[in-house]
Amino acid sequence: TTARVRAERRQAFLARVDEQLRGTAGPEEAQDAASRLLGEWLGAARVGYAEDEGDDETVVVARHYAAPGVSEIVGRFRYDDFGPALLRAFRAGRTT
Fold it and tell me: What is the pTM of this model?
């Protein structure tokens, strides 16, 4: 069935992530590897790790994956730079 195939693919992906992350030298390398693997798996243009600055205005993107040909976004940004819904989504416990 489709659900079974999807579950098998997901398990294979998770096993690959586990294998890749075990060999990392620290949190930064793990974030790079996880971002890349997830970006490739999802076919996403970008996947990244960001930290909220605690001021309800600023987020810092420190590590990320960008697909070939997609510009990188690393640095300090205002939530508004990503659109007004981002901060609301984070507050609601959702990722985007």
Answer: 0.71
